[in-house]
Design brief:
four-stranded antiparallel beta sheet, three-stranded mixed beta sheet
């Protein structure tokens, strides 16, 4: 944001990110359902950037560099519209190649629980419309950088 005459003003890139987030949030065809699922599975999949964590549908799971092991810094609104948190109301399940000791949960605003892996709160990216896509890798948005997460709990920094 820039300040002019003591009033905040969004820059063009900031407006574009917010506009894309709002459009994606309103589209029902490609968007995943918001809110916690009863049973969430964290799995792995080989992609063009290596083996990454995925949700049960095969969509890449990402971490946000501004997050801490106990807190998501992708608040509700435009951020979660573009980067939906992987939320679960029950205990997360895990597929082959996943370490059960690395899976956890944190409480989000509103009381839902977000799945973590290796201390990283996990998110999908709404632009990834098919399993195995990694369009969110190394994107700088909402003040931080988004990276896919490896099966050993490290960020995959491909770029």
């Amino acid at each position: 944001m820039h300040k002019t005459n003591n009033r905040p003003r969004l820059t063009l890139p900031g407006c574009m990110v917010m506009a894309v987030a709002l459009v994606l949030a309103s589209c029902s065809s490609g968007a995943r359902a918001p809110g916690p699922e009863t049973s969430v599975t964290v799995a792995t999949r080989h992609t063009s950037i290596g083996t990454v964590l995925t949700d049960r549908a095969g969509h890449t799971l990402y971490a946000f560099t501004l997050d801490t092991p106990h807190k998501s810094n992708c608040p509700v609104g435009a951020c979660t519209a573009l980067w939906p948190p992987l939320e679960a109301s029950g205990r997360p399940h895990f597929g082959k190649g996943i370490s059960p000791t690395l899976i956890g949960k944190i409480r989000r605003p509103g009381g839902h629980y977000q799945v973590t892996y290796g201390g990283h709160p996990l998110y999908t990216y709404t632009v990834d419309s098919a399993p195995g896509q990694t369009h969110g890798e190394a994107l700088e948005q909402f003040g931080g950088i988004w990276y896919a997460v490896s099966p050993i709990g490290h960020l995959i920094k491909s770029r």
